[in-house]
Amino acid sequence: MRTTHRTISIQRLLCLLLLCPTLFLGCSSYIDLSSSQHHVIQGNYEKAYQNLQGQAPSLLKAQGPIIVNYDLGLLARLNKNYTESNFLLSESERLIREAYTQSVAANLASYVLNDNTKAYQGEEYEDIYLNLFKALNFIALGEQESALVELNRSMEKQAFLKQKYEQYSKQAREYASQQGLGSIATESYASSFSTSALINYLAYLVAQSLGEESSSYFAKEQVKHAFSSQPQLYRFALPSSLEQKEPEPGKERLHLISFNGQAPLKQERWEYVYLGPTNQAKIAYPVLVGRISNVQSIQVKANGQTQATLQKIESMSAVAIDTFRSKSQLTKTKAVLRAMSKAVGIAIYDSVIQQDDKLTAAEELLGLIFRVAQDVSERADVRSTHFLPSEAWVGSIDLEPGLYDIEFSFLNATGGVLHTMVLPNQAVKQGTLNLSEAYYAL
C-alpha cells in the first residue's frame, strides 16, 4: 500500500513540473538589431528597412510575428512606403487582438505559465500607438476619412484599458483559489493614463479638415482633458496651436508634427519572496526603463526662414511606462503564484521521502529538479517592439499656397543643433489638411 501511495505522489509531482516548463526551454529572446538601429539614427531609413527585412526570419523565431510586423511597419513608414506600412501594422494589430481574445478564454493553468513560454501578445501602449501611425500613413496618402477611423479606434482601446486589467486580476484570483493556494494580493497599479492628448489632437485636425465640427470640438476638448486630468503624464504647457485664429486671407495652415527619442527598454527585475518561515523563492518580472533624449526644443524653417518653435504634446515614454506598470504588477503576481506552486511540489516530495529512506536515483533527481526550478526557471519576458519614438511635438505655420522646403532643427538645452531634417517640396494646398512630419531617433 505504501508503494502505491508513493507512486501516486511521484506522479503528482511530475504533473506539477508542468508548471515550470522554462527550466527545459531556451529563454533567450534577444536578437541584435544594432545595425538597423544605427541606420535609423543616421536617417537612412531605406537601409534600415532592408536590413531588418534580412533579419526578419531570426526576429520572427526569437520574438514572434507581432514584433516583426510592427517593427517593419514603423520602418516602412519612415521610408515613406505608407501602403506597405499600413499592411504590416494592420497584421500586427490583428495578431494582438487575437492574442488577447485567446488569453481571456485560455485555461487558467496556462495563464500562470512563464510568459516566455507563450507567443508575444503585444503591450497596451504598442496597441494604442499603432493606430496613430496608421492614421499618419493615411493622411500622407490623402485618405483622411480612414485616418479618423484609426484615431477613433485608438480612443476605443484607451477606454478599454481598465477593463482588460480587471479581467487579468480576476483570472489570477480564480487560479489561486482553484489550486488551493489561498488568497493572493492582486491589487494592480492604478494607471494614470486614460486619454492620449496626441491622438486626440490629430483627430481634432482631421475632423476639422473634413468639416465634422462636433467630432472636431469633442477631440479638442479631450486634449484639454488629457492635460488637466493627467498632470503626472503631461508636465508641460498645453500647446498654443490648439487655440489659433483662422489664417489670414490668402494663406493656408501647415500643421507640423515631430517625434524624437526611443521608447523605453524592457528590463528584467529580480526579487525574493517569502513563502514560509524557512522557504523563499526568487521571482522575475519585467519593468520599463526610460531612455533619455537630449532634444529640448524643435525649430522649423520654411524656405530658410524661421517660422515656428514646436511644443511638446506627449511623452509617449511616460504613457508607455505608466500603462505597463499595471502589467508589470500582474506579471509579478503570476510569478508569486508559480513560486507557490513549486513550493507545493517540494512539500509533496519531502512528504514522500519521509515514507521510505530508500530513494531511487530518479526520485533524487526529481527532488533536485524542484529545488533548482525555484530559481532557474524564472526569467522575465523582455520582448517588445524596437522602433517606437519617445516624445511628440506639434505646431503650425501659415503660408501662401505653394511648395516649400521645410527644415526641422532638433536643439539641445543650450540651443545647439543636434540634428537637422529637411523635407523638400512640401505642398501647402487649399481646402485640405496640410501636414509635415519629422523624426530624430535620439
From TrEMBL:
This is Lipoprotein. It comes from Sphaerochaeta globosa (strain ATCC BAA-1886 / DSM 22777 / Buddy).
